[in-house]
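FAQ
Q: What does a multi-component entry look like?
A: The components come first, one per line:
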Amino acid sequence: MSDVTRKQLLPGVFLTSVHTKKFKSSMLSMTLLTPLRKETAAVNALIPYLLRRGSEAHPDMQSLAAALDELYGGSIEPAVRKRGETQCLGFVGSFLDDAYTLDGTRVLSKAAGLMGELLLRPYTQNGAFSPDYTRQEKANLTDRIRSEINDKRQYAVSRLVEEMCAGEPYGVGRMGREEDVEVITPSSAWTQYQELLAHSRLEIYYCGSAEPEQVCLVLRDALAELPREGGYEEGKTVVTDGAASVRQVTESLDVAQGKLTMGFRTGGITSASSQYPALILCNALFGGTTTAKLFLNVREKLSLCYYASSSIDRYKGVMLVSSGVEFADKQRAEDEILAQLEACRRGEFESWEVEGARRYTVSSLLTVLDSQSRQEDWWLAQAVAGSGQSPQELAQAVENVSVEAAVSVAQGLCLDTVYFLKGVEK
Amino acid sequence: MSMEEKRYDRVGEKLFHMVLDNGLSIYVAPKPDFQKSYAFFATNYGGMDMRFRLDGKWLDTPAGVAHFLEHKTFDTEEGNALQDLAANGASPNAFTSTSMTGYYFESTEKFEENLKILLSFVSIPYYTQESVDKEQGIIGQEIRMGDDEPDTQVFYGMLEGLYAHSPIQVNIAGTVDSIAQITADTLNLCHRAFYDPGNMVLCVAGDVDPERVAAIAEEVLPKKGHPPVERDHGEVEAPQAHKQTWEKVMAVATPIFQLGFKDIPPEKGNEWLKWELTGNLACEVLLGSSSPLYAQLYNGGLINESFSYGCEAYLGAAFLCAGGESRDPEAVRSAVLREAERICGEGIDEGLFQRLKKAAYGCMVRDLNSFENICVNQAMAYFSGYEYLTFPQCFEAVTKADVEECIRRVVTKERSTLAVVKPKEAIQ
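Then the predicted structure of the entire assembly, as tokens:
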């Protein structure tokens, strides 16, 4: 079994370390937590990509790539994530575990050193980020924001969230807005970078075969130059209870298939609530699995779609339903989705539905332990939520929660916004 | 039935292998310390196998039938196996690729019960006309979803460009029209032809007893198999690309491209593995993230982080490819061709080559973290006549000259197709 330890390394710097020998690789991530705000989201999202372009010792991508090649094809990827109303910025790295190198190379200390170098000692020109790198990465970020439209399924969900939470930080996309990218300069990015370094909480995650004391030592070393000036605010997610009336939004694009998405408020239930396990079970019964009501009815019984599923945001207290349907079937699908929710509210479940939903949920929580990247994401989520709950503990809570509790959560779900992406008239 | 234990010490893996009397090969990778177990049951039958000979008669089946069959195979006389597995807490799913159909589940409890369900629903056909009719709607929506996915469209576009008639260019899901021709009879016929133990493989990873896996397979599956079915993948393709360009307009933000280079398909066996390892190294040398070309293209704004590359081999078709978003895909093709020419003239830098080999090795070993990778790769290797976990030895034997020869042979204008999905003017 693996041991999880959490430790403060420096002021506002925390290490979650998973000691295990079951993987062939080790995973290391460094993530700065900062409040998600419309004004700073874009420049924040740019920073990990700017840092990844080069450091003092490895000033360009080619020399960085060469250094990673020497670490047996290790990877260090920029990561920009949105967790509730916190923007998470940094690097996620995966490296060959020391046990499998051909020449006994100690990968971890070099890998941590390289990641620390990228975070703390970027390549600069005239005391700020390189103008060339800034220009190129601004263009890439703009492309990345625009490209969201390429994946219509995800695009419809993003648009739903934007519409539903228009006045809330949660409505801001993880990469910010295109217009805010345009005005970034090498020095404005540099100022924001200094601000983040000095005042953001830094979460570090390690999973691999190295002894925890060794990991602490290596990381303290790698981060020795990190400026710490206090503050370390991370953004508190504001939870809204319910909507007064349902908003309907329809947009057109040149698409073959319509995308129907529906946003519900959970009545204030988040991962911090005692009803959270009931919300998880409720989601699994309604639309989270292949035994769920949405899959069995909207897809299997009525053949309206290939996918119809629901998911929850643990911080924000929202549930999102997403489906791809023919334009003409939009109303039928929406009616059926709501009819299935009503069935959940009336507690109309066969025992196999409940068993299936519960077993599926427990199993998917336990298998978090079998994946380094899922564990990384789990512990980052816990850090943002200020919780130390392990996947096993939440699985146990889901084992114990009653169907009645899930039904009562379903009764509290409140439809806020319906977003439909349809085709253009030809 | 005898069980063979194979050790692959360099990568810290062990594999039990056995062949049942009915012809089924079983591989089990023991994985203590993990919560989950994973089972993958696959048939050597995919989207490209549309024409075959059964009972002495050549049959032409509609595009998309292997994939349709995959959807309907979950139906059982009692109901639906997807639900049976899910009720046990297993996460079941399936996929159909160009040359393979695989069914799998991952579970943290009741492994043996789940394995029985898996082997049973896949091997016992139960197709009714009513359920076939109903599935037309669901798969119709899956096809429509693919119509809106630029990555899917551009990849098939590249294959259409590279190949004059190879069936690998046909969309695995088929079209709304082609699947309309599928009946319960079609499905029964294809099941009989290809879902035969001798044409299948079972790969398992987890904290399980290999003897029990074999015993369950013997108990559930048919006792006897039939000889392999002959397939027709069309005439041998010319070495050069059928068409050098392909284009389509869609609702995308920036142009999305796939650049393909057609190669001569490898023979089954270790040659196949060597072709794949050499092809991957050729891609790394030519356009990997530490290659000179990559830096040049990235700095010039011609590619971004979405850029990726690889190589694929099938019966009668093999290619290298690279793609992503680019403002000027044609400039990317020209730059790749120029770089290939330079490498052919100057040779690959020895230091770069050794470094890339080290990196590629590390990535392949890291891939072994995933049960899915181990099982799916072993299944593909089995169908292609080699052992997946022998890759370290085979990889070591790939020389700089092999990679140079691959680039010289394959990366030429004549063998290339550039497929591009272009944005509409309106959203530019």
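Q: Is there any commentary attached?
A: Sometimes. For this entry: Chain B has a mean pLDDT of 95.
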